Amino acid sequence: MSMRPPRVRQPRAEIRKLLESFVSGSDLLPRDSHRVHDAAALPAPLQVIVVRAAREKRAWVCWTTALETLLFTCELAPKLTRERGAPVIIVKRYRGRGELEESASWMAEAQGVWLRCPE
């Protein structure tokens, strides 16, 4: 008998929590960064990405420093989540001018550790 992951009742809110867990548990953020909650405060290229993410029901979080802005978008990978029995998210990381820096699938382990899924 296989255990199925719990059904997500509020997809975007749940995905945002997974994304926040992923980013906060990683070494991706500079020490002096702070969270940006208002999309209107982002550079114009990132605002376009946030609008597209919202339209596609993806979550986003953003951090900034005096020198750089990092935007992360995220969606759940339902097929991989079912196959692995744990949440698998697809995270895209963008820089301030809107350039995609990385896109990868990540799986959460029970201890809160995130593992990169093989492509």
Please give a handful of descriptors for the protein shown.
119 residues, alpha+beta, six-stranded antiparallel beta sheet, 3 helices, 28% helix, globular
Question: Could you walk me through the main structural features you see in this protein, from its secondary elements to its overall organization?
Answer:
This protein is of the alpha+beta class and 119 residues long. The chain has one domain. Helices cover 28% and strands 31% of the residues. It has helices at 11-24, 44-55, 78-84; strands at 34-36, 59-64, 69-76, 88-95, 100-108, 114-116. A 6-stranded antiparallel β-sheet has the order 1-2-3-4-5-6, with helices on both faces. It starts with 10 loop residues before the first helix and ends with a strand. Mean pLDDT is 87; it is low at 1-6.
H-E order: HEHEEHEEE
Radius of gyration: 15 Å
Helix-and-strand structural type:
alpha+beta
Strand order of the largest sheet: 1-2-3-4-5-6
Shape: globular
Say how many strands there are. Answer: 6
Q: What's the tally of helices?
A: 3
* Terminal residue distance: 27 Å
In terms of topology, how is this protein built?
Blueprint: H1 11-24, E1 34-36, H2 44-55, E2 59-64, E3 69-76, H3 78-84, E4 88-95, E5 100-108, E6 114-116
Antiparallel strand pairs: 1-2, 2-3, 3-4, 4-5, 5-6
